[in-house]
Protein 1
Amino acid sequence: MNRPIRSGNPRRAIVLGASMAGLAAARVLASHFDEVLLIERDELTDSATPRKGVPQGRQLHGLLLRGAQAFEALFPGIIQSLRDKGAIEVDFSADLRWHHFGVDKIRFPSGVCVLMMSRPFFEQEVRRRIVEIPNIRVLSQHDVTGLVASADRHRITGVTVHRRDVGSEPEVLTADLVADASGRGSLTPKWLAALGLSGPQESKVRVDVVYATRIYKQPDPEHLPSYKSLYVIGKPPQGKRLGIIAPIEGGRWVTLTAGMLGDHPPADPEGYLEYAKGLPLDDMYRLLRHAEPESDVALYKFPSYQRRHYERLSELPDGLVILGDAHCSFNPIYGQGMTTAVLGAQALGTCLSDHLARTDGSLLGVSRKYQELLAELVDVPWMMATGEDFRYPEVEAERPLGYPILAWMMGRLHYAVAHDRVLAKQFLLAMHMMQPPTSLFAPRFLWRILAGGIAS
Ligand SMILES: Cc1cc2nc3c(=O)[nH]c(=O)nc-3n(C[C@H](O)[C@H](O)[C@H](O)COP(=O)(O)OP(=O)(O)OC[C@H]3O[C@@H](n4cnc5c(N)ncnc54)[C@H](O)[C@@H]3O)c2cc1C
């Protein structure tokens, strides 16, 4: 039998990894624990530069509207502050030329607005808010090297850490709850094995995506196109590449070419432009040909979706939760990672509030309850993203029952949103995780999809 975790104060939570999932989790846990230790292996400075522990930070990052709202709820005022410091608001319909399925989506003021900024700029602003919270202690340049368990291995009681700056011996830090937000490379499965416990089953969907991002100076206003941002995607199942231009802080453009299943962008500047030439529209090529680069081309290889099913583990120990990319990492082209991470952190808060309201402060059972809740939460973005990738026959994975009908309906929807504002708005809300994707199949939208959209 599991033993209750020590009740009464003081309580300590430890968070592994100070990236988006870890920062959001630390904020949430600070409301429930006397002390939160946020442990990060990188040196954290007050700068908006990419860092080693987050190599994807050099790549274009968009934050979905739902994610922005969740960060705002955790850090009130952050969106305005980002805006004031230079993040650029983009209406996902009015300001974006979005070419998809061989057609341009209809452009109108949708109110579905996102902030475009570089990933390190966003992380810096969140980190600034975290260091202001009195009961959060950030231990940077500390490497977590293992989990520590109770003698019966029914609960995790802390972690071992190694200080990078002084090269000390590993030390043990105890906690009532350990939250692993250490990213896709999380070692929790190995650490559980080292304790003699089973690891989670993994789902992987191979998509073989390569990202190539380059920063440019924005051209002078007279050379700017009629849109703020460009998004061009090849038509599946033949078209496997995409291109994006988006404005970010500092009067710059972040530009991305990406391709999947072998159609990969190269890292050399000439090859980067040639690759953009092969997109269904030549806008990106034309705009970048004479623009002034501010960086080299940064490449990132993303082999597969990866989801770890901790909710299915029969011997999941208490005192441990796993969230963010450590739990599930998605094909980045759908821009769901940061939003799912912050929603996962909020769900942890909800789970703890519900649990603590009904108990004497024991955390017994929280880990399982949380991982089950998180699995449900992640099902939606997982289904939305893999559902688009399943259009490619080379993506080897079992398609869900009824997939051909769903793919056909979504295909019709993609055409219909070229001229139907009502559908287009609902599509954007679903894509930005503001509405469930099933909302698109409500009768008032379904007939519009079947009719191929209504001109508006
Ligand atoms: C190419 C690419 C593009 C993406 N684009 C988007 C996008 O447009 N929109 C979006 O929402 N998401 C995007 N994502 C996903 C997004 O980057 C992540 O989902 C998001 O950062 C949340 O990740 P995380 O915090 O869980 O992990 P990570 O960001 O990977 O951070 C893990 C942290 O843990 C630290 N760490 C790791 N191990 C240890 C250890 N043992 N001890 C101490 N510290 C440790 C690392 O240094 C790091 O700080 C993209 C991802 C990729 C790969």
Note: Residues 366-389 form the longest helix (24 residues).
Protein 2
Amino acid sequence: MTDCLLPSKTWRWMAWACLLLLLLVTVLSAFLRHRAEGLGCQPWPGCLAAGTAASGVVEALARGAHRVAATAVLGLAIGLLVLALRARPSLRREAGLSALLLLMALLLAWLGVHTTGSRAPAVALGNLLGGFLMVSIAARLLAPPDRRGLGPVALGVALLLVAQAAGGALVSASHAGLACDALRGCADQAAAAGWPWAALKPWVGAGLLPGDGALLQLLHRAGAWVTAPALAALGLLALRRGRRAEGAALLALLAAVLALGLVLGSSGLPLAAVLLHNLGSALLLAAVVRLV
Ligand code: HEM
């Protein structure tokens, strides 16, 4: 290691490995959650009540791979923290981010152990948002950007995006993905059910009434009308301020996430599209967080 740690090959290798493993963990964790919820069985979600949720060889392999990858992330987070603390001159920013990464890894491991088998949306929400945050931290650890960030503007958009992702996780964990397939229809159904705001309580649990699911979908779809323009504006601003890589990535990812969202709504929730919608959102948050 040289005087300054960041150009070190070891650091870059470890930070990249951490990011890639976290993306793998994100996809595997969404895969396991959706398979446990029976996504793909017919007619969904009714088939779940009949106990047809999958638990075969593929799920066992995915569970094993998830465990190995998550443990490797924990080891890498410790390694990055040690490197940052030992560096001279001291790397306070990197040490802080690595410590946060380690803390999140321990928190999610604790959540995993203590909530096994739970179907409460709050658990899915915690897992999904915690995983997204870890991906974002790892993306910031890769290397410091060579230009100044976009500060509070990017932070505001990041918070909007977290809220949008949380809304999506709530739709998913409440089995509301097929509750309705257009903004107008969702609004009509939610109104007919008397605007059931209690559906927003993430600890209430799955098995909501159709009107509840329609309200959750309505909020997620309407949220996209606010979040997407904000993301697009941030992407364009990033391009203008010379942050080309993040700006271009943000715009491309936004287009992909929106297109996948439309596919989900119109074609009965194919698992691959659900997973890509999830992964795209994680990467989108990472691109925005790099701009803060
Ligand atoms: C910036 C825009 C968007 C973001 C960041 C976003 C993010 C997300 C996330 C993180 C989830 C949870 C995925 C999971 O549980 O694995 C989700 C679920 C979902 N999203 Fe989006 N979304 C966006 C726009 C849209 C749009 C425009 C639509 C439809 C028109 C849509 C439809 C859905 C549906 C149906 C689900 C539930 C999938 C399921 O049942 O598992 N999303 N979204």
Note: Confidence is low (pLDDT under 50) at residues 1-5.
